[in-house]
Amino acid sequence: MHAAQNPPPGGRSADSGAKDAYVALLERLARSGTSNSAAEREELGELPAELTRWLADRRLLDPSGERLSPPERALRHLVLEHRRRLLETAEGLGRDAQAMEDVLSLLAVPRFDAREAVRTEYFTDRERTRKRLEELDALSREEFLAMRNSFPDAQVLEASLARDLEMAADGIRIRMLTSQQALRSPAPARYLNALADAGAEVRVAVTVPLHMNIMDRTIVVIGAGPGPQGEGGDVILHSTPVAQCFVRVFTHSWDLARPHTEPSAGRGRAGCELSAREREVLALLATGAKDGTIARRLACSDRTLRRLMNQIMEKLGTSSRFEAGVRAVRLGLVS
C-alpha cells in the first residue's frame, strides 16, 4: 500500500500514476479476497487525499469512500449523471426559448405610451427623388400601393413603367389609384393600361387626396407640395406604424373608387389589325434587333420602317417601342 502513496517513478503524469494505483488496489484486493471488508476500508482510508479525489471524480470510489467500484459501474454512473444533466439543460433551454417567444410576442402589442423615432428623408430635387425611389422599389417584396393625382411626362412614365413591370413580374402585388383628372392625358392612360395588362390592379376615383407610394406597408413616400421657399418636395417616412395609418387612407379611397377599364377600341382586336409585315417587325424587335438590321431584313428604307413602327404603336395603343413590345407579348403576338 505504501507504493501507492508515493508518486510513480519516471516522471509520469498524475493521471497515469492514479490509474496504476487503482489497478494495483483492485488486483491486491482480488488476490486477498478482502473485497468489501474491514481490510478494504482500512486500506482505502490510507490513500492520499489527492488520489481519493481523483477516484471519486471518476466514480471509481463508492460515495461512502469505503469501497472501490469497477470501471463498468463507474462508467454507468457517469453516463447516468451526464444524461441527467443533459435533460436538465434541455428543460432549461426550453424554458428560456418559451420566455423569449413570450417577450417577442409582446413587442407586437401596441404600446400607447411608447415613442418611436421615425426616420425621415426630404428631397426638393425631383430627379434625386426618382433615383431614391428606384432604390426603394428594388427593396419591395410583397406589395406596392400608389396614389396619383398627376403624372409626369411620357419619357419619365416610360422609365417608371419598366420598373413597375419588373415588380409585377417578381410577383409583387401592385395597386394603383388615380384621379379622373390625371387620366385626361393619353400618356397616363397608356401607362395604366400597360400596368393592367401586367396584372396590376388599377382604380379611378373622382379625386385622390395624396400623391403617395406605400412599399410593403413599412415605407411611405408623399409629395409634400411647395416648401417654405416655394420649392416642391417629397418626404420619405420609414415607419411601420405610420405606414399603417396611410394604408387606411389608401384603403378608404380605394373602396370608393371604380375599376379602371381600357377603352374597347382596338383592345383585343389588335392581333387582327396587324399586317404580316407589322408582325414581322414586332418579332424582330422582340429579338433586340436594331432599326438598321430590321430595315435590311425587310428590304425597306428607314423612313418606311418608322412609318411601320408608328402604325404598330397606334394599333396597339402605345406610345413607345418598349410599350408596344410589352403589349404584343401580352396579346400573344410574339413569343
Overview of this structure, please?
The protein is of the alpha+beta class and 335 residues long. It contains 14 helices and eight strands. The protein has an eight-stranded mixed β-sheet with strand order 1-7-6-5-2-3-4-8, sandwiched between helices. Strand 2, helix 7 and strand 3 form a beta-alpha-beta unit. Helix 7 (154-169) runs parallel beside helix 8, helix 11 (276-286) crosses helix 13 and helix 13 crosses helix 14. The longest helix is centred in the first third of the chain and has 37 residues, at 71-107. The chain is elongated. The model is unreliable at 1-11 and 262-272 (pLDDT under 50).
Q: How would you briefly describe this protein structure?
A:
By secondary structure, this protein is an alpha+beta fold. The protein is 55% helix and 13% strand.
Radius of gyration: 41 Å
Distance between the termini: 96 Å
Low-confidence stretches: 1-11, 262-272
Shape call:
elongated
Spatial strand order of the main sheet? 1-7-6-5-2-3-4-8
What about the largest sheet? 8 strands, mixed
Instruction: Estimate what percentage of residues fall within beta strands.
Output: 5-15%
Total of helices: 14
Structural class: alpha+beta
Mean pLDDT, all residues: 79
Q: What helical percentage do the residues reach?
A: 40-55%
Order of helices and strands: HHHHHEHEHEHEEEEHEHHHHH
Number of strands: 8
